[in-house]
Write a structure and sequence with these properties.
Blueprint (H helix, E strand, L loop, with lengths): L2 H6 L7 E2 H8 L5 H10 L13 H13 L3 E3 L4 E4 L1 H10 L10 H5 L2 H19 L12 H14 L4 H14 L3 H9 L11 H8 L3 H21 L5 H5 L11 H12 L3 H8 L3 H14 L4 H5 L4 H10 L10 H6 L5 H15 L1
Antiparallel strand pairs: 1-3, 2-3
Helix pairs in contact: 2-3, 3-16, 7-8, 14-16, 15-16, 16-20
Length: 347
């Protein structure tokens, strides 16, 4: 991560672990990563940087600390200084990590982005009747999808639809973001700029431009969802990119839990370890707040009251040892579940 990308995911108020941020971006979906991603409000960014270089991140962190932009709380937690906060607001005026990427939570943004870029390139060349060009390579599966998509829509006003849809979307953007978006596109006699090339022109870091791009494509997905009847070919590019935040296996475990909340029985029936069943249920609770009323029923009134008496204040600072002193046999699973439920309740 470059410096702006690191600072974008840090906070002045909440000490944060860089490892959680990295694991989120590379999509290492452990329960710990999901829990702290929820606390940092960054789970919407899951999987957006699969080739992240953690060695480079450590070097940049040292520079940020030396420049007085970031402070180190302990061996693993970092915070923005007031100087760092001012800098990230200057370098990233439109977006913040706390606003999230709602479309990426439900659609594979990177997959859609590749499809969009290839679809526009092919349509642009088609509009000039040019058959001699090198199309982008986006992977066999999506290459085949775009080929079928193009043959289906090319004789149904495709060129005009994409022109109208693109202009409509761009008209809703600030001029500088519209410029960035257009300059990433490949078309007839037009090669899209890399982030490095845009960085040189705009005198901005590639990290801040990458953040802009995430939000631009997130907004484009939302735009197409809201205008699918106007731009059906463009909307069709989303086909097959939808995803459930909760894994299929965790969702299946939850369905069994709804029928029978005895965890050992669920583990036996699903042929899973008990620890895996617990991880599945924690994952569901973290990613689907609508399930919280169900999970709260796991706690009897006395236990819920005891936990409420023991734990208050900043949820990030709660320690499992506190309940263990009162109830030595208390299961960590219930402590973490209580944290999740209170996180939604308390904010």
């Amino acid at each position: 991560m470059d410096q702006d990308l690191i600072m974008f995911f840090l906070s002045a108020e909440q000490p944060r672990r860089i490892k959680v941020i990295e694991n989120t971006l590379i999509q290492r979906r452990t329960v710990s990563t999901l829990f702290w991603g929820m606390r940092y409000q960054i789970n919407d960014f899951m999987g957006l940087s699969p080739k992240l270089n953690s060695i480079n991140t450590n070097h940049e962190l040292v520079k940020l600390i030396q420049a007085g932009l970031v402070t180190k709380n302990d061996d693993s937690h970092y915070r923005l200084t007031s100087l760092g906060t001012a800098r990230i607001h200057t370098h990233q005026p439109y977006f913040s990590s706390s606003t999230g990427l709602s479309a990426n939570a439900n659609y594979n943004l990177l997959q859609f982005r590749k499809r969009w870029l290839l679809a526009l390139q092919i349509t642009s060349e088609y509009s000039y009747r040019n058959q001699h060009y090198y199309p982008m390579l986006i992977g066999n599966r999506d290459d085949s999808f775009i080929k079928q998509w193009f043959h289906h829509f090319k004789n149904h006003g495709l060129v005009n639809e994409i022109k109208r849809g693109l202009n409509h979307f761009l008209s809703q953007l600030p001029n500088d973001l519209a410029w960035q978006f257009v300059k990433r596109l490949n078309g007839h006699s037009m090669t899209g700029m890399t982030l490095l090339q845009q960085s040189a022109v705009l005198k901005r870091t590639t990290g801040s431009l990458l953040i802009d791009e995430w939000y631009l494509f997130d907004n484009l997905i939302i735009f197409l969802l809201n205008h699918q009847s106007q731009y059906p070919a463009c909307y069709d590019l989303l086909m097959g990119t939808h995803r459930d935040q909760v894994s299929n296996s965790a969702r299946q475990t939850y369905q069994f839990f709804l029928q029978n909340n005895h965890l050992k029985l669920i583990a036996n029936y699903r042929k899973l370890r008990l620890s895996t069943v617990k991880e599945h249920l924690l994952e569901v609770a973290i990613l689907d707040f609508k399930t919280h009323a169900v999970f709260k029923q796991m706690f009897d009134r006395n236990t819920w009251q005891l936990l409420g008496n023991l734990y208050h204040g900043n949820l990030d600072n709660w320690q499992f040892d506190r309940i263990k002193q009162q109830r030595p046999d208390f299961d960590y699973f219930y402590f973490r579940m209580y944290q999740i439920l209170r996180s939604n309740q308390d904010g």
